[in-house]
């Protein structure tokens, strides 16, 4: 049997796509005009994009503060290219550490109220490196069931075990904590702001439970930094930053760049620095990306009104959609899901909005469980009232045409 045979079948054979958990094979979705992935943007201007000559309002980006187009951020990146070139061409461990990386690490540690921080090339690699370095054979990572895939992959790469509790369910967490053997080292890992539902982890309760069993805590605040807690994230929002051991995050959202970080006490960060394989065996974050993250951090500290504004825009969109009868779940952040249910309905909804000039993301199986497909909307501090009005008008037409409110199949 040719090992590549399944790849050819995946594109065109519905049975193979289905066996992999996909609702339709890519070819069929393309024929139906509902294939939403890998669409090239010809132009991106923050809140608006151009695809094939059509201008759309961008409601699917994690550019929460709208800083990717900010002159100071762009200028910092350009200057860094002039000063250091386009790549570090080596790992942080060897020739790939610039003074700029150290400056960003110091700034982040101070901003987050931790002793030290270390910067990785992506958020994904940060989770791979941190869990595989920290979790030994006798250790257990306790995960929320809706944690980001990169946490799960980091745990899989470690020698330890993973135990999962029902999403944000404190009774179930208590059960899982009690079931851990006393001699095991335990680390709880949770998203701060959940990347699909826009819900926030109940950190005060999590901290209280973990303290009873001596369980360490890591919060992945990829979607929390720059967005909640005055920009310092979920642990600061809840006033428990000093009781959360490790704060992890990314630069690929509010910080208008790419990269990831982990912040905590000196000894733990030093261990990670010397043992995280995704840091040591991969080239370091290029200078323009470090500089863009630094410039974004400056803006968050000096002009915190953007952090406030993204939440104002989110509240407005969420309330408007709710009032139209859409199910936006329990979102309390700039990530707003619109639950559709059936995967093909979600793909059709995505296409309908696209034709109305609104770009949203769509999540279908295997990214979400069967029957729980959704549109994922995310707002920026820079979205205007005029743009929001257009979004509401499009959703109104969408609601009427899909008969969303009383369609039995959308369940
Ligand atoms: C919670 C969470 N952690 C980690 C990541 C990975 O970050 P990056 O895309 O910067 O690699 C993401 C990405 O969306 C995320 O949502």
In short:
This protein has 411 residues and is an alpha/beta fold.
Protein topology:
Elements: H1 5-12, H2 14-19, H3 26-31, E1 43-44, E2 48-51, E3 54-58, H4 71-84, H5 99-112, E4 116-120, H6 123-134, E5 139-144, H7 149-157, E6 161-165, H8 170-179, E7 185-191, H9 203-213, E8 216-220, H10 234-237, E9 246-250, E10 260-264, H11 266-275, H12 277-280, H13 287-302, H14 305-323, E11 335-341, H15 343-355, E12 358-359, E13 361-363, E14 373-378, H16 385-402
Parallel strand pairs: 3-12, 5-6, 5-7, 7-8, 8-9
Antiparallel strand pairs: 1-2, 2-3, 4-10, 9-10, 11-14, 13-14
Helix pairs in contact: 4-13, 5-13, 6-7, 6-11, 8-9
The structure holds pyridoxal-5'-phosphate.
Structural description of this entry:
This protein is α/β, with parallel strands linked by helices and 411 residues long. It folds into two domains: 22-58 and 305-410, Aspartate Aminotransferase, domain 1 (Alpha-Beta Complex), CATH 3.90.1150.10; 69-302, Aspartate Aminotransferase, domain 2 (3-Layer(aba) Sandwich). Helices cover 42% and strands 16% of the residues. The strands form three sheets. The chain has a seven-stranded mixed β-sheet, sandwiched between helices. A four-stranded mixed β-sheet has the order 1-2-3-12. Helix 6 runs parallel beside helix 7 and helix 6 crosses helix 11 (266-275). It is globular. The protein starts with a helix and ends in a 9-residue tail after the last helix. The structure holds pyridoxal-5'-phosphate (PLP).
